[in-house]
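Fold these two proteins, one after the other.
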Amino acid sequence: MENERKFVNNKKGLGTGWIVTIIIALLLLIFGGGYIHYSNSLNSAKQDYEQQQGDLQSALQRCSDLVPNLVNSVKGSMGQEKKVFGQIAQARKEYNTAAKSGNTKDQANASAQLSATTANLINVINERYPKLTSNDNVRRLMDQLEGSENRINLARRKYNDAIKIYNNKVVRFPSSMVANMKNMKTKSYFKADENAQKAPKVDFDN
């Protein structure tokens, strides 16, 4: 009788142990599967914004490279507009510095300022030197710069959309738990300050 009780108790113990083991295994499976799912989701979002970032950088660099071509094409006929050319040279220098730094905010401000000063030059050409616009090379460069600005605007929107998706995954539960484990942080939007988007004023009477 005593042996039967021991057998029954051992059987119960084994049964309880198996149940605990199964529960632990299921929990590990659930958490492990969840981690893999959210980790893959975060990685995909990261890869997407990095790709969009590359496209944006290419568009920005193309525009920056076109600016001196336009300047060189019109500079000989616009010798008195030294202030305009000086502003463009400074804006391009600041853009190149910001691009090398990798700081998103600085690059956004610098690119906005370069766009504003370049637009200022184009306005000067149209208003004060209309004959230059009939030059095929000048017109082609102006059209290319306009196209580059359109590509930049499109690339910026795509980049910011990708950043929004990534940031949401980083801060929202439960993917935020995985993001913390992987030390993944939110990223800055490519957005310039309002002042950086304004072209410097040029007094054409001086």
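Now the second one:
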Amino acid sequence: MEVMSRLDAVEKDLRDEKTEHKDDVDRLNKK
């Protein structure tokens, strides 16, 4: 079970990073 919870944490981190990246791209496109 330890591995699964770690995988969930990694997936969440990836999702957050993807969202942040998308925000950055949107910000750059607005300039």
